[in-house]
Amino acid sequence: MIEIQYLYKLIMVFLYAAFATYVSFYYLKRKFLKKGFFVFDMYKKEKPKVANLGGMCIWIGILVSIVLSQLLLKEFSTEKLLVFYFVVFIHATFGLLDDLINLSQKIKIIAPFFMALPIALLNTDTTFNLIFITLNLGLIMVYLLAPLFLMVVTNLTNTHSGYNGLASGLSLLLLFFLGVRSVLLADYTSLYFLMPVFGAVFIWTLIGDRYPAKMIWGNVGSLMVGSAIAAYMVLTRAYIFGLIILIPHIFDFLLFVYSVTFGKKKFDNIKFGKLRKDGTIIAPTKYKLKFLLPYYFKLSEKRTTLVLYALTFVFGVIGILLNV
Fold it and tell me: What is the reported pTM?
């Protein structure tokens, strides 16, 4: 059972992030629309304008939470906390640049590995548990495998998106199950790393990205939150658990790989489907998880998103039950 002293402080860290995200959302939404930072919602008949760069609200929420938390966590060394969020904010900055100037594909391929390298400062344990065997990988674990893991997981969470609330809702579920795992392992200290981003993403999903979306978080949001999920997996050594709860994301990536490798047509540039008169989606391909179900069944954006929520929830429960 979590002790009251931990519970109180964790709730406060969560509330700091949630409140700051809430306030910044309503301020930045008007500003972004006025300045022309918007996208068109392709799955609505009217194709309304929706403010972009909403990940900045999450960024502000996390920053406020970290600053105010210094007053609470006097007995807790915040050095690792700052390193953790340094990694997160590097990815946020990269995502913001991509949103603003559309970085080249070469930079997008090369830069993520170097952005992930600081995770080595958090990954002092060089062992890797494969359920039945433990390997000591030394510096290979610290400077190669851990950064690669962070890079891959960040991109998996980034690419599995496209509908209102899909990316943020799935990310919220991943953060939730990572938090549940830490509670079950009585690893309460690690929850201080999780709560700022969890609080910010929770309120963002609730008021910003939930169907019908009022704001899109952009690459600044997806890369920032994706890197936080990956960094927390590295920090808590939830490698096997992370792979289990990410199975829908991994399957989505494998579908894409199959389409560009063996598919008769190349679908790598297709981002959106079309709408029928009844609001259901006409899927342009079956080689993306978000299009797979609408390809075979008449489903709306909202229902498809809920099905994908349920799928990730199932694998989250499986990960908890396996206790890895």
Answer: 0.91
